[in-house]
Structure formats: C-alpha cells, structure tokens
Amino acid sequence: MHYIVACSFLCNYKIIVFFMVSVIIVNILHVLGRNLMLKTLVIIPAYNESRNIVKTIEDLKSYQPDIDYIIVNDGSTDHTIEILENHHFHYINSLQNLGLFGAVETGFKWALLNHYQAAIQFDGDGQHSAKYINELIKGIEEGYDIVIGSRYQTKKKPWNGRMIGSRLISIAIKLVTNKTIHDPTSGFRAYNESCIKLYAQECNNPPEPDNPCLYVE
User: Which one of 2, 19, 57, 133 has the fewest CB atoms closer than 10 angstroms to its CB?
Assistant: First the structure.
C-alpha cells in the first residue's frame, strides 16, 4: 500500500513539474518572439476625429497591446484634443492644421528620433483594423520597403470620387513604373527604416499617395 501511494505521488509530482516547465518554455518563446519583432511605431493622423479616435485606439490595444503608437492631432477644431488628454493617449499636438502630409511626416520624425525600425500609417477614423498589422510588418521583415493594406484585394472598389482618383493614380503609376499598385491612396501602410528616414527628412517628398512608386522596382 505504501509503495502504491509513493508511486502515485511520484507520478503526480512529475506531471506537475512537466506542466510548470512547459508553461515557462511557452512564456520564454512568447517573449523571444515579441522581442524579435521589429521595433514598430503606429502613426495615427487625426483631424476632427472626436467620434472615432477612442474606438481606433481600443481596436489597436485589443489586437496589438504591446505595440507603440503616436496620435498626431492635426489642429483639430472639435473635441479631439480633450479626448486625447482625458484618455491619456500618446499624442503630439499640432497648433495648426498641416494636412495629412504634415501630420504623417510629424509621425515619421518621431519614429526617426526614437529609432523605430518600422512605421505603420493608420487612419484615425476607425476604418482599418489593427488585427492586420502583423501581416504588414511581416512584409517589411521579408525585405519590402512599403507594404500597403487594402480591403480591395478581395472586393471591387466603388465608383465614387475618391476611388476614381485612386484608379487614376494607379494608372499613372503603371505608366511610369510598369507596376500595378491597386490601392495607392490607402491610409493603412507599413514602411521600413529607410523610408522612415527619407520621409522624416525630405519635406518635399510626402508619403502620400503616389510617392510609393519611388520604391517600385
């Protein structure tokens, strides 16, 4: 009887030790995997986004809780700045409206100053989902300079004014580079370190919407 009890205790002890070691290994692999990911900054230009900015950041934190972000409040005239302050979001406040180019460029300057290896441009109106950020970063890790996220890979663009403009820009890029970019006006993009430096320092070379053709080979 004592022998059976001893064997039972020994088996249970081995199971407990095995379980604890497995948990430790999983946690170590998780940390290593997170640390191997490029140091990434999400740049969120925001102009009068008081109705959308909270859900945008909630989505970001839900899918990417460990990623850094910076909101560039581009001289909003609504209550955007109050919302950013009340929620203790990370933001840079512009005292005047610089436009989308200026807001995104401000984010690139912050990324360059803080030695980020990749930057994600992410619209502040909630139209994108942060669950796809890893796919964009994966493209940068594979060696691409710019990776564009687009919902129009699986569905057709509508025929509204903005998408007609997008089609015309796509045609122009095709004529110049002989390459096809389906959604050049997308506000969901990843940039590598060299792009961060270029767009942060070249004020006459904004990252919207046709300049990605500079990197097309």
Answer: 2
**Whether the Cβ atoms of residue 73 and residue 167 lie closer than 8 Å to each other:** no
Express each pLDDT in 16-63 by its tens digit. Answer: 555 565 556 545 544 444 445 799 999 999 999 999 999 999 999 999
Helix (H, G, I), strand (E, B) or coil at 188: strand
Burial 59-95 (b: 16+ CB within 10 A, else e): bbeeebeebebbbbbbbbeeebbebbeeeebebbebe
* DSSP string computed for 139-180: HHHTT-SEEE--GGGSSPPP-SHHHHHHHHHHHHHHHHHS--
How many C-alpha atoms does 67 have within 13 Å on its Cβ side? 28
As given in the structure block, the two tokens for residue 37 are 């990911």
Domain boundaries, the chain: 1-36, 38-215
Q: What does the pLDDT read at residue 70?
A: 98
Given the DSSP bridges, would you call strands 91-94 and 188-191 parallel, antiparallel or unpaired?
Answer: unpaired
Of residues 183 and 74, the one with the higher pLDDT is 74
Report the CATH number of the 38-215 domain.
Answer: 3.90.550.10
d(CA 116, CA 88) in angstroms, rounded, equals 22
- Token readout for 184 is 């050049």
